[in-house]
Write a structure and sequence with these properties.
This protein has 7 helices and 6 strands, in the order βαβαβαβαβαβαα. By secondary structure, the protein is an alpha/beta fold. The chain folds into 2 domains: 125 residues, TIM Barrel (Alpha-Beta Barrel), CATH 3.20.20; 49 residues. A 6-stranded parallel beta sheet has the order 1-2-3-4-5-6. Helix 6 runs antiparallel to helix 7. The two termini are 23 Å apart.
């Protein structure tokens, strides 16, 4: 499966610094983003459901794919285009059984075995990380590959994706560019 955008925007109040999520969504859409996830861990469902429904509707109008984090019930009720689950959430195999035909399923993974299991259980894409320390993921630890098999689920990143990745890493913290190159080389695997 090819995702609709190389940019995967995650709307999360915990890192939005008080900014309104619908306004952030408008900025993402105006910037060309076509893949948006709502990640909300603490909002009561009575508030979260109308927000998710509003964001899902706006994404559909803009031709963007809207994904809900963790909550299959909310993804279905809000008419989202997909669901993203983590290792401590509903197992991917069970989540896939609940989703309507055409909905995508993403799974957060932390090593190659988890990524392969996610794909076998019906994931349309896997998220790998964390790559860099983040305040939203306690206990950050940079993962390491045990073999040069390349990325799970495809032949590797396109030339455009590689350029995009390098541009994103160029402005990182001290040593970030070298770290990004090394990470990208590890993801790419050996050259044919």
């Amino acid at each position: 499966m090819r995702l609709p955008s190389p940019l995967y925007a995650i709307l999360d109040r915990s890192v939005a610094r008080g900014r309104d999520l619908p306004a952030l969504l408008e900025a993402v859409l105006a910037g060309g983003g076509r893949l948006v996830q709502l990640r909300e861990k603490t909002m009561p469902l009575a508030e979260l459901f109308p927000l998710a429904r509003k964001l899902a509707r706006r994404c559909r109008e803009a031709g963007a794919l809207f994904v809900v984090n963790d909550r299959a019930d909310l993804a279905l009720a809000a008419d989202a285009g997909g669901l993203h689950v983590g290792q401590d959430d509903l197992p991917a195999l069970e989540a896939r059984r609940l989703l309507r035909p055409g909905m995508i399923l993403g799974v957060s993974t932390h090593d190659e075995a988890q990524a392969r299991r996610a794909v076998a259980d019906g994931a349309d894409y896997v998220a790998v990380g964390s790559i860099f320390p983040t305040a939203t993921k306690a206990g950050f630890q940079l993962g390491a590959r045990s073999d040069p098999a390349g990325p799970v689920g495809g032949p590797g990143p396109s030339r455009r994706d590689r350029r995009h990745h390098r541009r994103q890493c160029a402005g990182g913290a001290r040593g970030g560019r070298r770290r990004c190159r090394r990470h990208f080389r590890d993801l790419r695997g050996p050259r044919p």
